[in-house]
Fold this sequence. Notes:
Strand content: 15-25%
Shape: globular
Number of helices: 7
Helix content: 25-40%
Number of strands: 7
Protein name: SDR family oxidoreductase
CATH topology: Rossmann fold
Mean pLDDT: 90
CATH class: Alpha Beta
Low-confidence stretches: none
Strand order of the largest sheet: 3-2-1-4-5-6-7
Order of helices and strands: EHEHEHEHEHEHHE
Keywords: Oxidoreductase
Largest sheet: 7 strands, parallel
Family: Belongs to the short-chain dehydrogenases/reductases (SDR) family.
Radius of gyration: 17 Å
Organism: Wandonia haliotis
Structural class: alpha/beta
CATH superfamily: NAD(P)-binding Rossmann-like Domain
Amino acid sequence: MSKQVVIIGASRGIGEELVHQFAKQEDCQVLALSRNSKQMSEVFSEYPSVTCVTFDLDGDKVRETAERIFAGVDKIDIIINNAGKLVNKPFLSLTAEDIRSCYQVNVMGVFSVMQAALPKMSAGAHSVMISSMGGFQGSVKFAGLSAYSTSKAALASLTELLAEEYKESGIAFNCLALGAAQTEMLEEAFPGYQAPVSASQMATFIADFSSSAHQWIKGKIIPVSLSTP
């Protein structure tokens, strides 16, 4: 029976590469969600196993929208919450809207997605949160990223809390705190910086982790970085 993989934030960067990774596996059906469904449909048109759906974490009624989308699948075996919103501003320049939108996409939207997804998940399923080394305790921090990094830190706590609340279900919850990978978002945060890892290389690791690590690892926050925190 095919695995059903849900990827949130699938239109660019690591999310796009993740769709490519899973779509090439014969036993996978991929549900790719992003605000830019037109771009996804063009990029993933070669894959009959990929279904692209418009989905905005900063939209109205995120949970209800996700529930309608997930009603079209029998189960969810892997869900990767990869979407993210970057706000790069000095602390005193942050507006209430900057903070709200960042937390809505990076935290509140993930709450809503998981509330919709969990009824479709059962023993053996794996939820993977994509966080950042900027949200990993003890790591190097960077000026201007207080809204982004603190919102990504919240995903670490959410992972641990879901793992505890659902520990009898057999569902695994893990969080990957990613170091620098060459993506559009990295370029926005650090213009001109060249990461040691490509988006495709990072996606390969995440895809492998999502497919197998839940047999051995549950409720963990794992740094994925070539540098020392």
